[in-house]
Specification:
It contains eight helices and ten strands. With about 250 residues, it is of the alpha/beta class. The longest helix has 18 residues. The mean pLDDT is about 95. The structure holds 2-amino-2-deoxy-6-O-phosphono-alpha-D-glucopyranose (GLP).
Length: about 250
C-alpha cells in the first residue's frame, strides 16, 4: 500500500478530484466505485466544482456505489441514493443509465446482489475504486467478523456503524436500518486501482492497524494489503499514529 499524507482534508479532496478528472480525460468511459460517508463529501464538492469549470466530463463514465441500507426506497432522502444525488449525481453530467446503486428495497435481496455483481462484470470491472474507512475498519459495509463475504451480499450492521450513520436519520438511532447490502470483499479487491481516503484523528488508530497490522477479518480494510495497486490518502490527523506502536 502506498501512503500519501496531505496537510488538510481539503487538499486530499482537491488532489483526488484532480486525479479523477485527469483519468476521465484519458479514459472517458472510466468505471468508478464510489463511497458515501462524511469523508468523501469534500471530494464530491471538488468534482462538482471541476465539472462546472468544464474540467471534469462524466458523460461516458460509469459509477457503482459500494452499499445501501436495506428497506429504504430509492427516493428516500435518508438513504445513500439520496446522499449521492445531493452531493454528486444532481450536479454532474453522468448518464442516469450508467449510475449503479444497490436497491435496498428490492423484493428479492439475494437476486439484487447477484444482479449487481453481474452489472459490475458487464461494465468490465471497476477501474478506480474510492473507499472510505469505517471506525471499526469496515469498507463498504463489510463489517469485522470471523469471516468475510467475497461477493455482494446482505449484512447486519454493527451498533457502532449504525451510530456512525445516525446523522442521515435525523439523529434517531432507532430509525437507522439494522441491515444493508454491500459489495463484497472480492468485488472491491478486483478493482484495478483503489484509493482509500481517511481524514480526521478519529481514524488514526484504524489507519495504523490497516497499514501495519496483520491481515484479518477483524479489520476488513487490512485486506487491502493484498491488493497490488492500493493507495491510502490521509490528512495529517489521520496519519498521526503511523509512527506509533500498534
Ligand atoms: C459508512 C459507509 C462506508 C464509509 C463509512 C465511513 O458506514 N458504509 O462506506 O466508508 O461509513 O464513514 P465516514 O466517512 O463518515 O467516517
Amino acid at each position: 500500500m502506498r501512503v500519501r499524507v496531505f496537510e488538510t482534508e481539503e487538499r486530499v479532496a482537491r488532489a483526488l478530484a484532480a486525479r479523477i478528472a485527469t483519468r476521465l480525460s484519458v479514459q472517458p468511459d472510466l468505471v468508478l466505485g464510489l463511497p458515501t460517508g462524511r469523508t468523501p463529501i469534500p471530494l464530491y464538492r471538488e468534482l462538482v466544482r471541476l465539472h462546472r469549470r468544464g474540467r471534469a466530463d462524466f458523460s461516458r463514465a460509469t459509477t457503482f456505489n459500494l452499499d445501501e441500507f436495506v428497506g429504504l426506497r430509492r427516493d428516500d432522502p435518508r438513504g445513500y441514493h439520496g446522499f449521492m444525488r445531493r452531493h454528486l449525481f444532481d450536479h454532474v453530467n453522468l448518464a442516469r443509465r450508467r449510475i449503479h446503486l444497490l436497491n435496498g428495497a428490492a423484493p428479492d435481496l439475494e437476486r439484487e446482489c447477484v444482479r449487481y455483481e453481474r452489472a459490475v462484470e458487464r461494465a468490465g470491472g471497476i477501474d478506480l475504486q474510492i473507499l472510505g474507512l469505517g471506525l471499526n475498519g469496515h469498507i463498504g459495509f463489510n463489517e469485522p467478523a470471523p469471516s468475510l463475504m467475497a461477493a455482494t451480499h446482505r449484512t447486519r450492521l454493527r451498533q457502532a456503524t449504525r451510530r456512525a450513520n445516525v446523522a442521515l436519520f435525523g439523529h434517531r438511532l432507532h430509525d437507522v436500518p439494522t441491515e444493508a447490502l454491500s459489495m463484497g470483499m472480492a468485488t472491491i479487491l478486483l478493482a484495478r486501482r483503489i484509493v482509500l481516503l481517511a481524514t480526521g484523528a478519529s481514524k488514526a488508530r484504524c489507519v495504523a492497524r490497516m497499514i501495519r497490522g496483520s491481515v484479518t477479518p477483524r479489520l476488513p480494510a487490512s485486506f487491502l494489503q493484498l491488493h497490488r495497486d492500493t493507495e491510502v490518502w490521509l490528512d495529517r490527523p489521520a496519519a498521526s499514529r503511523l509512527g506509533a506502536a500498534l
